[in-house]
């Protein structure tokens, strides 16, 4: 963690007072589980906190930048900016992938490159930074690292196929769209989910992903592409 601390000071002017907090932010559950006797804390609680402050700061940014945008448009933009894939990209750009503490199994299965883990670590870092330095420092960090990239559109653009499908199907009124997990495969640390999307109980698409959210997007993409 000392190397990470030096990097944060040199590149972002951030000097953590509580290094244990910083260490927790970069500790995945798989590492904590493999070292239960040491009672090591993992980063899920900090991730929860980081998600909240990230949503707040990005919401304030959008509110100020787009004074004429309605709530719905701002919500769509925010969801694109804070998507798992986008946050993973910012995590890589900051070099955070090198400092995440993973269990041996997770490391071997390529967890260090997994968007879910990288995005969660980015949020956990924000949570730790909030506790250690306060909201203003989190905001300054995001305006240094994230906001400039959003300004030029240089972030991981991922089509929200669930929204696209909903807009296509509901053009003439409300239609019941449902997503159902039809299968799960793989070990606990590396599961693959298969999801089916249906309209009025009629299947219109299927997709697979390493999380239920990603599988739902893949199923919606399959349905959109089948229609067009």
From TrEMBL:
<keyword id="KW-0694">RNA-binding</keyword>
<keyword id="KW-0479">Metal-binding</keyword>
<dbReference type="GO" id="GO:0006364">
    <property type="term" value="P:rRNA processing"/>
</dbReference>
<dbReference type="GO" id="GO:0005737">
    <property type="term" value="C:cytoplasm"/>
</dbReference>
<dbReference type="GO" id="GO:0046872">
    <property type="term" value="F:metal ion binding"/>
</dbReference>
<dbReference type="GO" id="GO:0010468">
    <property type="term" value="P:regulation of gene expression"/>
</dbReference>
<comment type="subunit">
    <text>Homodimer.</text>
</comment>
<dbReference type="InterPro" id="IPR000999">
    <property type="entry name" value="RNase_III_dom"/>
</dbReference>
<keyword id="KW-0378">Hydrolase</keyword>
<feature type="binding site">
    <location>
        <position position="47"/>
    </location>
    <ligand>
        <name>Mg(2+)</name>
    </ligand>
</feature>
<dbReference type="Pfam" id="PF00035">
    <property type="entry name" value="dsrm"/>
</dbReference>
<keyword id="KW-0699">rRNA-binding</keyword>
<dbReference type="GO" id="GO:0042802">
    <property type="term" value="F:identical protein binding"/>
</dbReference>
<keyword id="KW-0698">rRNA processing</keyword>
<dbReference type="GO" id="GO:0004525">
    <property type="term" value="F:ribonuclease III activity"/>
</dbReference>
<feature type="domain" description="DRBM">
    <location>
        <begin position="160"/>
        <end position="228"/>
    </location>
</feature>
<dbReference type="GO" id="GO:0006397">
    <property type="term" value="P:mRNA processing"/>
</dbReference>
<comment type="similarity">
    <text>Belongs to the ribonuclease III family.</text>
</comment>
<dbReference type="GO" id="GO:0003725">
    <property type="term" value="F:double-stranded RNA binding"/>
</dbReference>
<keyword id="KW-0507">mRNA processing</keyword>
<feature type="domain" description="RNase III">
    <location>
        <begin position="5"/>
        <end position="134"/>
    </location>
</feature>
<keyword id="KW-0819">tRNA processing</keyword>
<feature type="binding site">
    <location>
        <position position="120"/>
    </location>
    <ligand>
        <name>Mg(2+)</name>
    </ligand>
</feature>
<comment type="function">
    <text>Digests double-stranded RNA. Involved in the processing of primary rRNA transcript to yield the immediate precursors to the large and small rRNAs (23S and 16S). Also processes some mRNAs, and tRNAs when they are encoded in the rRNA operon.</text>
</comment>
<keyword id="KW-0460">Magnesium</keyword>
<dbReference type="GO" id="GO:0019843">
    <property type="term" value="F:rRNA binding"/>
</dbReference>
<comment type="function">
    <text>Digests double-stranded RNA. Involved in the processing of primary rRNA transcript to yield the immediate precursors to the large and small rRNAs (23S and 16S). Processes some mRNAs, and tRNAs when they are encoded in the rRNA operon. Processes pre-crRNA and tracrRNA of type II CRISPR loci if present in the organism.</text>
</comment>
<keyword id="KW-0963">Cytoplasm</keyword>
<feature type="active site">
    <location>
        <position position="51"/>
    </location>
</feature>
<feature type="active site">
    <location>
        <position position="123"/>
    </location>
</feature>
<dbReference type="Pfam" id="PF14622">
    <property type="entry name" value="Ribonucleas_3_3"/>
</dbReference>
<dbReference type="InterPro" id="IPR036389">
    <property type="entry name" value="RNase_III_sf"/>
</dbReference>
<dbReference type="InterPro" id="IPR014720">
    <property type="entry name" value="dsRBD_dom"/>
</dbReference>
<dbReference type="GO" id="GO:0008033">
    <property type="term" value="P:tRNA processing"/>
</dbReference>
<keyword id="KW-0255">Endonuclease</keyword>
<protein>
    <recommendedName>
        <fullName>Ribonuclease 3</fullName>
        <ecNumber>3.1.26.3</ecNumber>
    </recommendedName>
</protein>
<keyword id="KW-0540">Nuclease</keyword>
<dbReference type="InterPro" id="IPR011907">
    <property type="entry name" value="RNase_III"/>
</dbReference>
<feature type="binding site">
    <location>
        <position position="123"/>
    </location>
    <ligand>
        <name>Mg(2+)</name>
    </ligand>
</feature>
